[in-house]
Amino acid sequence: MIGANILKIKEQIPASVQLIAVSKTKPVEAVQAAYDAGHRAFGENKVQELVSKYEALPKDIEWHLIGHLQTNKVKYIAPFVHLIHSVDSLKLLETIDKEGRKNNRIVSCLLQFDVTNEETKFGFTPHEGIALLNSDAFKALSFVRICGIMGMASNTQDESKIALEFAQLHDCFNQVKTILNEQGKDADCMIRSYGMSGDYQLAIKQQSNMVRVGSAIFGSR
Ligand SMILES: *Cc1c(COP(=O)(O)O)cnc(C)c1O
Question: In CA terms, which of 6, 25, 70, 88 is 20 to 30 Å from 97?
């Protein structure tokens, strides 16, 4: 079932869009089933769960941290995490840089933007994200790599509202890319991580190239 779901979604999306299978709350057996179907990129929203699955499962899996990250937990994932999607403060980015340095490893990150007015969502406003990239504190970091942006649409059935928010996220990406280009740091900035089970098709129409899909693969939580 899990393997078939993955293959079906991969058939539906362009080859240029990367599928992150969101395995949060699901057992290692579920991840293993997706792995056996050939999938290698998984997302978790909690550090402890990500670390225990990392330890239990094959080492060629790419682990993506997609949920809110506390600074005191960065050290547990810095040695191996493939991409941190949820960078939402300078303090967090500085901590990731520090832990990257300790591990002699440049850690790939996305800046999380919040274009909704929902209080439940983390992330920078467009203005805040741009200010961060222009700050001297950011320019001093050398063990983080900004690979793009991540975001979510509002929890609504209104497809035109969702499409508008995804378009705003794409606009954030363009602004991030432009600023990094001015600093000579944009070579790896190409990821637009938005779209989940309910809205990944809409997201791809608005130029997402990384979708994070959980329940459509693993079933409801
Ligand atoms: C849970 C989660 C997803 C996947 O949600 P589904 O609706 O199950 O596809 C994607 N992104 C983040 C940040 C999540 O926490």
Answer: 25
* DSSP H/E element including 18: strand 18-22
Question: Among 6, 9, 45, which is best to mutate for testing ligand 1, by the most ligand atoms less than 8 A from CB?
Answer: 45
Cα of 45 vs centre of ligand 1, distance in Å, is: 8
* Short-list 6, 12, 21, CA closest to 214: 21
Greater pLDDT, 32 or 118: 32
pLDDT of residue 12: 95
Neighbours of 56 (CB within 10 A): 12
Model pTM score: 0.98
Radius of gyration of the chain (CA): 17
* 181 C-alpha to ligand 1 centroid (Å): 30
The tokens describing 2, both together, are 């899990």
